[in-house]
From TrEMBL:
Keyword terms: Cell wall biogenesis/degradation, Glycosyltransferase, Teichoic acid biosynthesis, Transferase
The protein's name in its UniProt record: N-acetylglucosaminyldiphosphoundecaprenol N-acetyl-beta-D-mannosaminyltransferase
Natural source organism: Bacillus thermotolerans
Keyword Glycosyltransferase annotated: yes
UniProt catalytic activity: UDP-N-acetyl-alpha-D-mannosamine + N-acetyl-alpha-D-glucosaminyl-di-trans,octa-cis-undecaprenyl diphosphate = N-acetyl-beta-D-mannosaminyl-(1->4)-N-acetyl-alpha-D-glucosaminyl di-trans,octa-cis-undecaprenyl diphosphate + UDP + H(+)
């Protein structure tokens, strides 16, 4: 399926199921794949930073994480019909790994957060094999890469914040031939550990998580202004 472009940034019009089907095929072929979440804030940043734009556009799957991407697709008559959030994509990938017999590795966040996320996910997903984990404060990167490689993990979730996590993936993919799926997951470990609560189902269903977060953290208003700015730019470009 052909990708869509918004202000020079690629977005994959795939659903969760389509991504998983495609990944299964790519893994069988021995190919490495990357998953990156795209939202209006990230697109605006990419417009100022060519490194961020390159990281996004060179990814295998640029998932539409944010209601702004759905609205932009509607403005342009595109095919992005549903949100594919980073945290839910991680959940689907973990379930996929358990069903297909692939082990996974977690890297990033604080020690107690990533450890608790590991323990809770192992309890929640039957058959899930977490081959190892490391917090995000490791100084010996060579040792970390060796640990991931020796774990035999086929899926790697990196939580260092964007674009740092994507840069780390880009720099280390070739050193980790056993890893077939890389995803930068931002604050997902915080969610799965229970350290951060997601918006209620009502807000998630209608793409209003941003409104829930804004009500909880009014200081986020500056970041949320990226949404109308992004839609205006897309409309003018249209």
């Amino acid at each position: 399926m052909e990708k869509e472009q918004y202000l020079g940034v690629s977005v994959s019009p795939y659903t969760y199921e389509q991504i998983l089907m495609d990944l299964k095929k790519r893994i069988a072929e021995g190919k490495q794949s990357t998953v990156i979440a795209v939202n209006p804030e990230k697109v605006i940043t990419a417009g100022r930073d060519p490194v961020v734009k390159e990281l996004i556009n060179n990814s295998t799957y640029q998932i539409a994480d944010g209601i702004g991407m759905i609205l932009a697709s509607k403005l342009k008559g595109g095919r992005v019909k549903e949100r594919v959030t980073g945290v839910d994509m991680m959940g689907r990938l973990l379930q996929f790994a358990a069903e297909e017999g692939h082990s996974v590795f977690f890297y990033g966040a604080k020690e107690d957060v990533v450890r608790t996320a590991k323990e809770k996910l192992e309890a929640q997903i039957p058959g899930l094999k977490i081959a190892g984990y490391s917090n995000g404060y490791v100084k010996d990167q060579e040792a970390l890469v060796s640990q991931i490689r020796e774990s035999g993990a086929a899926l790697l979730f990196v939580a260092l914040g964007s674009p740092r996590q994507e840069l780390w993936i880009k720099d280390n993919m070739a050193k980790l031939p056993n890893v077939k799926v890389f995803q930068g997951v931002g604050g997902s470990f915080d969610v799965y550990s229970g350290n951060v609560k997601r918006a209620p189902a009502f807000y998630r269903k209608f793409g209003l998580e941003w409104l829930y977060r804004l009500a909880k953290e009014p200081k986020r208003i500056k970041r949320q202004m990226a949404l109308p700015k992004f839609l205006l730019k897309v409309f003018v470009q249209k």
